[in-house]
Structures are given as C-alpha cells and as structure tokens.
Specification:
disordered C terminus
Length: about 120
C-alpha cells in the first residue's frame, strides 16, 4: 500500500498510470473545477491521488468489486478536495500552475486569500 510510504517524495509509477489511464474514465471536470496538468508538483494532490489509486488497486484485485462504493466513498470524497476552485488542491492554478503554499508558511491568524494574484 502506498500509504505505508508517506510522505510521498516521488510519484509512484502506479499513481501516474492511474491518473493518466484510469481516472479520466471515472471522472470528468465541470465548469466550476480546476485541474492542474502539473499535478505531480502538488504534494497534497499526490497524496490524495495515491489514496484513490490504492483503493482502486485493492478493488480491482478483489474477487468482487464494488464500483458503487468506490465512487461514493472514495472518488466522490476526494475529487472535490482536488478540483474545487475555491479550496481544492489546484485552486491557485486556475490561470496556470502555481506552486502550492506549504501549510507551515502560513502564520497564525493569516489565511490564504482567494483573491491572491494568480
């Protein structure tokens, strides 16, 4: 399991293959979503995508796969946290890739503004 190797310092090949080959068949983006083609540069996104890929790998290796539960409990849970234009992992990338701001750089009482230059 990928979760045993946290923090992920590189993108495991299985996660890249999942995002490139499988994820586009399971999900699509709407008008109010943001995806960054440089998703590998977003540690928070890589971790969530690794979690999704982990469960997908377990499910597809199982004798009985429950696609409904995977969609409801895994994909529907994580995708908004990735693509939401206000608070998702790629929110700052709505006009091109922006390096993510590590949580350790935000001072107490200071939030990341949604009106920050992009």
């Amino acid at each position: 399991m990928l979760s045993e190797r946290l923090p992920l310092t590189t993108v495991p090949e299985s996660v890249g293959a999942f995002v490139d080959d499988v994820l586009p068949t399971l999900s699509s983006l709407g008008k109010r979503t943001v995806w960054c083609v440089e998703w590998r540069e977003h540690p928070d996104a890589v971790t969530r995508l690794a979690a999704i890929a982990d469960v997908w790998g377990e499910m597809t290796g199982a004798e009985t796969a429950d696609l409904h539960t995977f969609l409801r409990d895994v994909l529907d849970h994580h995708m908004p946290r990735l693509v939401d234009p206000e608070s998702g992992a790629f929110a700052m990338c709505s006009h091109g890739h922006q390096a993510p701001e590590p949580i350790t750089t935000v001072k107490r009482g200071q939030g990341v503004s949604s009106t920050a230059p992009r």
